[in-house]
Amino acid sequence: MTLSAMKIFSTVVLCLIFTASSFAQDKAAPDTKNAPDKKNAAISGIVVKEPGSQTLKKVTITLVAENQEEGGNYTVTTDSDGHFSIDNIRPGRYRMLLERTGYTEINERQHKFDGRTLSLSSGQQLKDLRLTMLMTATVLGRVVDEDGDPLPAVEVIALEHLFGKAQWEPSNSERTNDLGEYRISGLFPGHYYLSASPAPDFQRLTNMEASSPATGDQPALRRVPTYYPGTTDRSQAASLDLRPGDEIPVNFTMIPSRAYTVRGSVAALSPGNRATVMLMAREYGVAFNAAEVDKDGKFELRGVPSGSYFAIAFTDDDDGAFRTVRQRVDVVSGNVEDVRLAPATPGIVRGQVLADNPAVISHTYISLRSLDDDPETGFMNGELEARQARVNADGSFEIKNVNAGRYAVEFMSISENARNYFVRSVRLGSTAADTGFSVSGNAGPLSITLSSHSATIEGSVLDEHDKTLADCTVVAVPDEQFRKLRARFGKARADQNGRFLIRGLAPGSYTVYAWQDLDGEPYLDSQFLKSQEEFGKSVRAEADRKTAIDIKAAVPPAETR
Q1: What is the C-alpha separation between 366 and 225, in angstroms, rounded?
Q2: What is the rounded radius of gyration, in angstroms, for the C-alpha atoms of the chain?
Q3: Is residue 187 within 8 Å of 135, Cβ to Cβ?
Q4: Could you write out the DSSP letters of every residue in 439-501?
């Protein structure tokens, strides 16, 4: 690839990575060796591993305060007998996280667990905690060609099928080394699909004129994605059942199959500027190959097996603006001709943020989340097209390189003062844009009002015998018109006493659910919510008020656990 193409591709990669480092606050862990303060709390317990219930040493245990101004962060490691203790903990609500290579935390029902919530009061001594970690699984093996020779740089991916997703979601992946070997570790026991894909074929089209005419092309042979247990047909792929501690050998033989050519053009390419076209598999959003566009705007992608893809064009203008467009391409049993891609020039969204506390504004970031949800497009809508900017001290902001589409406003802040704030209103010019707005070129002025007069929902999670139930996920789901806005959802974890607290909600009507063993965010899917209607409780959340409820816990469908 040329430097220009490398620049474009690097920009793509950077756009896909959202780092929270800009919002993190570095805080030293409190010194737990000092003489204990009677007003502070303490916890102690043991960590065991499953299967076997043996004690587990060298587990890192971290307490992270929900409110960093009131609490702190505490870290200890289990001793040789699996025991731990943390003293001098300031009262408050904390998230407890466990970490050790080769293990993952689970709850008492042996389900995946992303950390428990603890509420610690003044002087409380929480003793005899029993925490459990499950051994993860490993898949390892070799990838070879039809002659048994090793194939390096092949990406082997462990994929999961999640509720409401048309695609398989990558869980973990590794590339083969020079011996064709790979090892994927840290997999939570369960069902996975495995695929082995050749390294992306990044071609440079320096001599397209020498290519064979489209009418005379013969199908080429190339190595194509291969699925466990050894098929190139995705519909014939079988799941692999992994148990705790498994090390399962899975070898792949990649045999060349028929492949074709995709040709087309990129419109409105500025003189002297370059563009790159990438072909991405729709099944799980993995880059298949890419090529530079020639001076006439034409491109040619060779060696493409039958399948469904997105052709994505990336260009950069003289002023550094980044343009992109994608189009579905289906390759059946022959070449695909005349694919036309027309990247649009991105716009700039300018606006003003108002809040009842100026200190909040100076620590706020405004972001635009894409509302063009299409399950077939995978991560491309919500991730690549999202843009953000820090708000200036006077409340003004400018978000550059915003591609055409529909967006919703979200905000983030590194200030603890913003914990109870929500987006009260959004206006684009004189038009209300609370549920989203369209961008095509430059847009603005965008007026965003933040308010601290939020609502709070608190209460207890109960089991079928009306006893409190710890460690459940509690979600406040907004009315239908706001369900494409992630920021309008409220989420909390019930603590060791079954108590939960959801703060910072926009006042309005909600349906509250509590689920045991929920994995991911299936509640963002309308079909999932429809299946759970009988378990929800309707609540009216009022500004500056706490609404107290008790909610019965439900067990979500098996495919969401």
Answers
A1: 40
A2: 26
A3: no
A4: ESSSEEEEEEEEES--EEEEEEEE-TTS-B--S-EEEEEE-GGGTT-GGG-EEEE-BTTSEEE
Question: What single-letter amino acid sits at 218?
Answer: Q
- Among 63, 58, 57, residue whose Cα is nearest residue 43: 63
What distance in Å separates the CA atoms of residue 454 and residue 420, rounded to the nearest whole number? 6
pLDDT tens readout for residues 158-193? 998 776 565 678 889 999 999 999 999 999 999 999
Considering the domain boundaries, does residue 25 fall inside one? no
Domain co-membership, 398 together with 473:
no
- The domain that holds 191 is classified in CATH as 2.60.40.1120
| Helix residue ranges per DSSP H, 287-401 | 358-361
Residue 333 is given by DSSP the state: S
Tens of pLDDT, residues 391-406:
999 999 999 888 888 9
Quickly count: other Cβ atoms within 10 Å of residue 101's Cβ: 8
User: Judging by DSSP bridges, how do beta strands 257-266 and 220-222 pair with one another?
Assistant: antiparallel
Decide if 23 is inside a domain: no
CATH no. for residue 101?
2.60.40.10
Q: Do 219 and 111 reside in the same domain of the chain?
A: no
> Residue 304 in contact with residue 260, Cβ under 8 Å?
yes
Q: Which domain holds residue 117?
A: 31-135
* Rounded Cα–Cα distance for residues 513 and 496 (Å): 18
Q: How far is 484 from 1, CA to CA, in rounded Å? A: 39
